[in-house]
Amino acid sequence: MAKEFLSKKGVDFKAFDVTRDPEALKEMKALSGARTVPVISVCGNVMIGFDAKRLEHDLKCLEQSSPL
Fold it and tell me: Record's Pfam families (predicted)?
């Protein structure tokens, strides 16, 4: 659901398969403290699981940020 949501919004994202990538699993656990997927990080906000309303809110940060 998260991938579909982000794709429909036109948001570029990088997905990792933590069942096949031990480094990605390690990073996910360090970031979230959990072994639950998805873990979504937007502008320093970490979401564990998928919440469309919260993700919509967090994505506003990307709209407001400007490239350096």
Answer: Glutaredoxin
Q: Domains in the chain and their CATH numbers?
A: 2-64 (3.40.30.10)
Say what the pTM is. Answer: 0.81
What residue ranges in the chain does DSSP mark as E strands?
39-42, 45-48
Q: Which residues pair with 31 in a beta bridge?
A: none
The phi, psi pair for 48, rounded to 5°, reads -105, 120
User: In 3-state terms, what secondary structure has residue 40?
Assistant: strand
Task: Enumerate the β-bridge partners of residue 47.
Answer: 40
- Residues 66 and 43: their CA atoms lie apart, in Å, by 12
